[in-house]
Amino acid sequence: MPRAAAALVAMICWVALGVRFFATYAQNGDVLATLWILARFFTILTDLAVAIAITQLALGRRASDFLLGGLTLSILLVGMIYQTLLQRLFHLSGAALVADILLHKVSPVVVPLYWLLFAPHRRLKWSAPLWWSLFPLVYFAYALGRGAIDGIYPYPFIDVGKIGAAETALNAAIIAAAFVVSGEALVWLDRRPLGRRALMSKAPE
């Protein structure tokens, strides 16, 4: 059951990435240009990392509890930011709309559900969210670096050219704080008898 669930989650992530790739490729007709465009987005990088990790689980290999927790938190961040800051900014159709739904609405639901029901629990430390936050922080520096070179920023809330350095820094600080707080909530949830653990604890001996 865990491997079957992992296979389903991995398939959703890979399909989402594939549809997004072909939707972007259809606009420019260049493979390398498409990869370069997609590598700009936190959503794509996170879904790719999740797809690789969950595929390993579907194949019967192991992934660290720390890694699974961090990826779960990151994909949750993708969904939360999209719902609160980005959803109303774009009007998509066709393959782009399908990819948008899979990447921003489906993955941020099925990955946490998989983590809750099938991942090992009660192993995460309270310090884990601080380490997990390195991923979005490194991405933030990367996104700003790319933006400084080509003038294109992936998200409006970090668009230094339009909103300025001060507001960009404030937005980044707010998102970082929300990430760490959400991470601590995830660790708290990890220590609670929920999901499959609760069902197992109620099963007759």
Protein model, in words:
It is a single chain. The chain has 205 residues and is mostly helical. It has one domain (2-202). It has 9 helices and no strands.
Write the layout of secondary structure elements.
Layout: H1 2-28, H2 31-38, H3 42-58, H4 65-86, H5 94-118, H6 128-132, H7 134-150, H8 160-190, H9 195-202
Short note summarizing the structure:
It contains nine helices and no strands.
The coarse overall form would be globular
DSSP strand content: under 5%
Give the low-pLDDT segments: 197-205
Distance between the termini: 21 Å
Radius of gyration: 18 Å
Beta strands, count: 0
Please outline the major beta sheet.
none
Order of helices and strands: HHHHHHHHH
Secondary structure: helix percent: over 70%
Number of helices in the DSSP assignment = 9
Compute the number of structural domains: 1
Structural class: mainly alpha
> What is the mean predicted local confidence, pLDDT?
89
Which descriptors apply to this entry?
205 residues, mainly alpha
